[in-house]
Amino acid sequence: MSAVSSPRTTWDIDPRQFSDGVFYLPAGIEIQPRESDWGHPDRTGLREQVADDRPHGASGQKLLCLLCMRVNAEQGRPPAPVWMTFVNGRYGPTFRHENCRSPHAEHMPESDIHKALKEREARTWEMAGATAVTVETWRPRARRRPDVLAVGTRLTVAGEIQHTTLPAKDVVRRQKALAGAGNRVVWTTDRDSADVDFLRMVPHLAVPALDDHRLYRQHRSPQLKVISGWTLFEEQRCGWTDVWSGTTRCPVTKRLATCGRRHLYPTFNPHAYRPDPNARFPCVAAPHLDHLLEGILNDTWRPYPVRPRRITWIPAEDYDKVVTERGGDVGTAERPPPVATSNRSTARVCEPSTGTRPADAHGGRPELPRPSDLADIRTPAGPDHAVQPVISGFRTASVRLEVAIANMHVFVEEVRDRALLEAETRARAYGRPGMYPVAVGRPMRDPSIDQDGLFGWTLVVNGHSQTILMPGDGLGQLRRMNDSPPCVIVNGDPWWWDIAATAAVPLSSQWPS
User: Fold this and answer.
1) Are the beta carbons of 469 and 493 closer than 8 angstroms?
2) 379-385 — which CB contacts under 8 Å span 24+ positions?
3) Of 55, 203, 257, 329, whose CB is crowded by the most CB atoms within 10 A?
4) How many CB atoms lie within 10 A of CB 5?
5) HSE of 314 in the Cβ direction (CA atoms, 13 Å)?
6) The Cα angle at residue 348 between residues 346 and 350, in degrees rounded to 5
7) Dmax (CA) of the chain
């Protein structure tokens, strides 16, 4: 509803008759701040009229928050006005509450990237066979309006686009509000893989951060890469390295002793995926955004809790076995745990108020490692050391390069092991022993591709040249699997250590696919 007759009092209106916008009392209209013309294309100069019509807030009694008033009415609270003010904030004109409460997302102008991703999500679900697709529409029992809502033959999926970072408590609140209405929820963001931690606790998909919002449209990027949020599985004998735990423990018994059975292990090897041959958006090299959105709508991809605060999408064909071996289910993945709050003081331990004493007062002196201990790795001199880039950090550039060389020797051996395993697996699958040659060459140092403190090599694997960027950090640190960003760059893509060895093994041109 865009206009009503004048109320009996300045705020005596039923907020449930509106669309959760901002009610402008002098004109008797509802404003939709997310729309370019505020929902009134026939009213030229409306923005300037509201900005000049001062005062706002409780003293002016001109702007009402219909969303807050609707929520209060549904919770049985007595009718009361919620006054707003219109200000020019750092991100443009914004409607704010009189009580300094943060503005609603529904009352904030959408960025071009937000609009592009929302339009793509809606179009993808329409083409994937959804019976109904709506944008910015309330559902019964929902406590939040999703950006996109798709009704399929099996599921109702709510799509939430998040261009900026959010506090963890806000992510949890939005997830519970959308899932509580019976929706399968998928968050989509354009944050880089190193900056998506705030969404790991909910089912999400992260696409690359592009400079131009038009690149997110389907005709510009038909297969938009997803850099975070999905996991594939491959069947291996017990004792395989588990990239989720970073150990070789049995995923069923959690013991180091192998059980002798075969299990499903997480992998990012796209060749382990068996996509739906009838998909409207087929998977080509790896699962892309449209393929995953279609699979989520058709229940061929399901959310799975790796840990209480780390959720990923997995193929439905592997879901039952993964749940049987590792536990967890869809319900756990869709209900994130509450965010713990801390009452600890914000004072730092290095401040005088902490009352710390020097080490001498405890009867000892601090023991610092000798500088020579940091450079204990010996490698023969050669052309690999001809270039010594200057890298910031505690270690000198020469020491970091020596550590990277040692890491590279270990990495090449793991690539060779992975290539042999790949050949054996394909030989058994196709019944062609000896038809899959494995050739892993000698890594060649290439200082011209050094980047961001990483040292470059080229490595020929199965006749294909692979570009490797190796950190100069200790191998023990690189092997640890946690929520830190991936550390090894293979052909421009970041990977964790154990997964990077798989990414560096291409299929030989004579191998059957």
Assistant:
1) no
2) 379/405, 379/406, 383/445, 384/445
3) 203
4) 6
5) 26
6) 165
7) 89
Pairing between strand 156-161 and 184-189?
parallel
Q: Are 118 and 33 in contact (CB under 8 A)?
A: no
Please list the residues that pair with 314 across neighbouring strands. 302
First and final CA of the chain: distance in angstroms? Answer: 57
**Which pLDDT tens digit goes with each residue over 86-102?**
876 655 677 877 766 65
- Close Cβ partners of 211 (under 8 Å, ≥ 6 residues apart): none
Nearest-angstrom CA–CA distance, 295 and 184: 12
Closest C-alpha among 201, 210, 263 to residue 229: 201
| CATH code assigned to 112-231+268-334 | 3.40.1350
Lookup: tokens for 390: 């200057």
Q: How many CB atoms lie within 10 A of CB 16?
A: 11
The DSSP annotation for 109-134 comes to PPPHHHHHHHHHHHHHHHHTT-SEEE
pLDDT, tens digit (0-9, with 9 covering 90-100), for 259-287: 999 999 998 888 888 888 888 998 877 88
Task: Decide: pTM greater than 0.70.
Answer: no
Q: Are 22 and 34 in contact (CB under 8 A)?
A: no
Round to whole Å and give the CA distance between 472 and 456: 11
Instruction: Kindly provide the b/e burial profile for residues 206-239, where b requires at least 16 CB atoms within 10 angstroms of the residue's own CB.
Output: bbeeeeebeebbbeebebbebbbbbbbbbebebe
Domain ranges within the chain, ordered by starting residue: 15-107, 112-231+268-334, 385-503
CB-CB contact of 230 with 313 (8 Å): yes
Distance CA 238, CA 166 (A): 39
